[in-house]
Amino acid sequence: MERPIAQLPKAHLHLHFTGSMRHPTLVDLAERRGVQLPQALVSEWPPKLRATDERGWFRFQRLYDIARSVLRTPDDMYRLLLEAAEDDRAAGSGWLEIQVDPSGYAARFDGLTATLELVLDAARAAEAATGVGIGIMVAANRTRHPLDAKALARLAVQYADRGVVSFGLNNDERRGRALDFEGAFRIARRAGLLSAPHGGELQGPRSVRECLDDLSADRIGHGVRAVEDPYLLERIATQETTLEVCPSSNVALGVAERIEHVPLRRLFEAGAPIALGTDDPLLFGPRLAEQYEIARRVFGFTDPELAELARMSIRGSAAPDARKKEMLAGVDAWLAAPPPAGADPAAG
Ligand SMILES: [Zn+2]
Q1: pTM over 0.85
Q2: Is 290 considered catalytic here?
């Protein structure tokens, strides 16, 4: 008596650009570009990772950088975004926010501005081809100088009415305090971009508080470790700060020892808005629908609870109001429809 998750309208708010690549696409592009992939990205895929220490994080970053290096031509960027949108559509997503740090690609694509314009053009093409709405999150890198982040924020706001919807902050949370990036986020927020830094993944509640206090976060990338502080959790619920929770990523990177240790149920019960995401399916494996399957199978989310997860992802998104409304109506319709016939009545 379960409704099909792929038909539940939802928004996907935590997906990194290269990290969205299909594994066969990585292998194909690497072959054509003559890039030698390490075994961890070929026969041993998905790689065994553990990012809870700096060496493990470094290895994760290195694999990510190798994968990024296969993206050489504008066609590659178009292909990546089209496939990401197709995968989202297959999972029932009607809105995708994909995050990109243009500095990682700028050397190959004629600088920061040209890179961002290419990404935006590719996003528009993917949107037209699939019907999945796409917003771009420009994300700064915590391990780089705060002035670089400010330059990215200024670039992002120039494209605020042309597809850039939010501003992020990624890479190793243990390096670079949120406060250092306050200026960049102020520039982004003044132009109406959502503030969506990573926090509370590799570090505890303090990192989440800093995202709220110093960066006025509307959403937090991960934020799962907020669960360690009940007052913080209450604040998140009251302020309605959406946590972009990525269960498969948490296990792959060792943030949670096992899938059942991801505090999804506790965050949900505390009233924290949650948007399930995939982070880097290229390196972790599972995609968006599987995150909802995990909520159902591992954490016992009922169909009404899954519908609520989907609603929270939509409300936390930067999608235009009309699209939000349409998707929310789709969630209600999903729930109102009887579960498919032929389901085992005993299970209901
Ligand atoms: Zn992430």
Answers
A1: yes
A2: no
